[in-house]
Amino acid sequence: MRIFRWAICLGAAVFATPTYAARCGGDFNTFVSAMSQEAAAAGVSQAVISQAFAGVTQDPAVLAFDRRQRGTFNKSFEQYVSTRVGPGRINIGRQMLQRHGSLLSRIEQKFGVPPEIVVAIWGLESDFGKGDVGKMPVIRTLATMAHDCRRTELFQGELLAALKIVQRGDLPLRDLIGAYAGEIGQTQFLPSSYIKYGVDFDGNGHVDLRHSVPDVLASTANLLHVSGFKNGAPYGEGTANFEAMREWNRATIYRKTIGYFADRLVGR
What we know:
globular, mainly alpha, 2 domains, Lysozyme
């Protein structure tokens, strides 16, 4: 599903409003110094800035991956869903619905998103927390992408958001590990979404989207809730709920897959 994350990134770039002072391109260390000043101006402590940027270098693999993922996705829905939603994943998803039934019920009551939608996203993004959530140092990834001039404002914003995650104490720098666009955690939040939608649902004072299942599932539901998802209403293509899921992923084929998976989880 990594390819679909670019739908979010590209869409977000269209609506990006902040203007950052750091100039893309040129000497990477000069760029990092400028980003350090941006971070300080945004309220990030010098200790966090120094720790995060210590020895940071560009990652050519990130840029190579980015360029490979920019093409048009050419599978049909039937082809795609057959690779993402099989009997094994459906069975495990149903087990997750039972195992976390009480938690999901509380989340549904608070955010108005049905359990099967939340669990479907969880399963697609990381095999319910057991699959690949990325192994890339997020600061290095985002600094690399921000230095690249194609979407520098978008990724400068994501880099500052990642620093704020550390500043808030949600994740230590050693746990700020993610995918090739800097997505973090069991449902793959971009750092700006982590800041905007993250929920401390286990009540420990931190939003931990890597390790805390309550935080992961509640934050996923909160993103949809804030985006206008209405419980009890249909979520198929052409509905208001289908449009609300655009904030999760702008790709129609992916949102259709969420709905298909959710239906199978509850026997529809």
